[in-house]
Write a structure and sequence with these properties.
Elements: H1 7-10, E1 20-25, E2 30-33, H2 35-41, H3 45-49, H4 60-71, E3 77-84, E4 95-103, E5 113-120, H5 121-168, H6 174-202, E6 208-210, H7 212-226, E7 231-236, E8 244-246, H8 248-265, H9 267-272, E9 275-289, E10 292-304, H10 332-342, E11 346-352, E12 355-363
Parallel strand pairs: 7-9
Antiparallel strand pairs: 1-2, 1-5, 3-4, 4-5, 6-8, 9-10, 10-12, 11-12
Helix pairs in contact: 5-6, 7-8, 8-10
Bound molecules: adenosine-5'-triphosphate and magnesium ion.
Protein name: histidine kinase
Catalytic activity: ATP + protein L-histidine = ADP + protein N-phospho-L-histidine
Pfam family, one: HATPase_c
Length: 365
């Protein structure tokens, strides 16, 4: 067997990539696999180095032919889609990947080497979707903010005029006075709506050291006070998560909005006594948020066993004024997303009946 012990140092930089990369011989023998590959395949470095890359491919022949063609310089690179089978998880569904095979300089001994990049197709689609979402959210946010300002300005005038009218009418008909009260009341409602829309942009951030679990505990206590019966809020914390810099009050509001939504849709289950919310924290490595890459991030999952987000609004829940519930103003998630973005993070959601998971990702230093 060839001695590959010197090879990894040469490829150390590849370990920093989020994309899976494997260096093989022309025959498919693994000379090196980076950390992303080992993580995804759940294999140790030793196990990888004795293996044949084609063994993990559904269509081994296709890969072998490509490796051969590239190594023999018939073409300098080639791309195709394939499905990876995971070693110990062979019973799991395969992992669809986009494969890019390129030439590499030969090793010192002259053995031809080939670079194989494997990009998870699901991941590509997700990143694409996240990016599109962020752009859309940004555009809508701008529109909302401008609109809110336009609405806000005349409101004061309308309210004042209605009050003057009420004074004039004082001894007149009580019916007309009632109308002016309706005007004032509705203006106040609009005013508070507009204030909520503008709130996260107006207040300067108060940045300090924050602990995600302290925030979770605060929110948990608040929501349990509001719903003392039939609701269990479980925690599954990764206590190794470090503190980070952020605006504590805003972050509490962000998590609260999400947990409150869950509590609201769980009402029928609370009545039955089996409503559940789970707060789970995890470390995430090499995450892309929007267009930025972070080495380390924290994930807070808020999971509930409610009915799921209504299908007709699923793509739009983070947009302002989109609500699926009676009396909802549709601002909670917009505000939460804004807070996450102000912390360079983001929120996404996966939902099906019986299981809804809101994931907050925040970069860590
Ligand atoms: N955990 C969840 N399960 C099912 N649906 C949800 C969940 N969280 C949010 N939703 C849906 O997303 C909609 C939008 O939520 P959002 O918090 O933005 O607005 P809202 O709760 O309707 O009003 P507001 O929070 O401003 O009072 C909700 O009305 C609800 O239909
Ligand atoms: Mg809400």
């Amino acid at each position: 067997m060839t001695d590959h012990s010197l090879l990894p140092a040469e490829f150390a930089g590849l370990d920093l990539l989020a994309t899976m990369v494997v260096v093989t011989s022309a025959a498919g023998e693994c000379l090196f696999a980076n950390a992303a590959f080992e993580d995804t395949m759940r294999l140790s470095r030793r196990a990888v180095q004795r293996a044949q890359l084609p063994d993990w491919f559904d269509d081994a022949q296709r890969l072998l032919e490509t490796l051969d063609g590239v190594a023999a310089n018939h073409y300098s690179s080639s791309r195709f889609d394939a499905v990876l089978r995971r070693g110990a998880w062979a019973h799991e569904d395969g992992l669809p990947v986009h494969v890019i095979v390129s030439q590499m300089e030969a090793a010192a001994g002259g053995t031809p080497r080939v670079l194989v990049e494997l990009i998870e197709i699901g991941q590509l689609a997700r990143q694409d979707r996240d990016e599109r979402n962020l752009d859309q959210v940004q555009a809508t946010k701008e529109l909302t903010r401008n609109l809110a300002h336009e609405i806000k300005n005349p409101l004061g005038g309308i309210r004042g005029a209605a009050q003057l009218l009420a004074l004039e009418l004082q001894d007149g008909s009580p019916e007309l006075t009632e109308y002016t009260q309706v005007i004032v009341h509705e203006v106040d409602r609009l005013q508070s709506l507009v204030d909520r829309l503008l709130a996260p942009h107006r207040k300067a951030q108060v940045v300090g050291d924050v602990n995600i679990h302290e925030i979770c505990e605060r929110v948990r206590a608040l929501v349990l006070i509001e719903h003392p019966k039939g609701l269990a809020i479980q925690r599954d914390y990764d206590t190794s998560l470090p503190d980070f810099r952020g605006d504590r009050e805003q972050l509490i509001q962000m998590v609260l909005n999400i947990v409150q939504n869950a509590a609201q849709v769980l009402a029928p289950r609370m009545a039955a006594g089996d409503a559940q919310i789970l707060l789970r924290t995890r470390v995430a490595r090499q995450v892309t948020i929007g267009k930025q890459r972070w080495r380390l991030a924290l994930e807070l999952h808020v999971e509930d066993n409610g009915p799921g987000v209504p299908a007709e609004i699923r793509d739009r829940i983070f947009f302002p004024l989109v609500s699926g519930r009676e009396g909802g103003s549709g601002l909670g998630l917009t505000l939460a997303q804004t807070v996450a973005q102000q912390h360079q993070g983001m929120i996404d959601c996966e939902s099906e009946p019986g299981k809804t998971n809101f994931r907050i990702t925040l970069p860590l230093p």
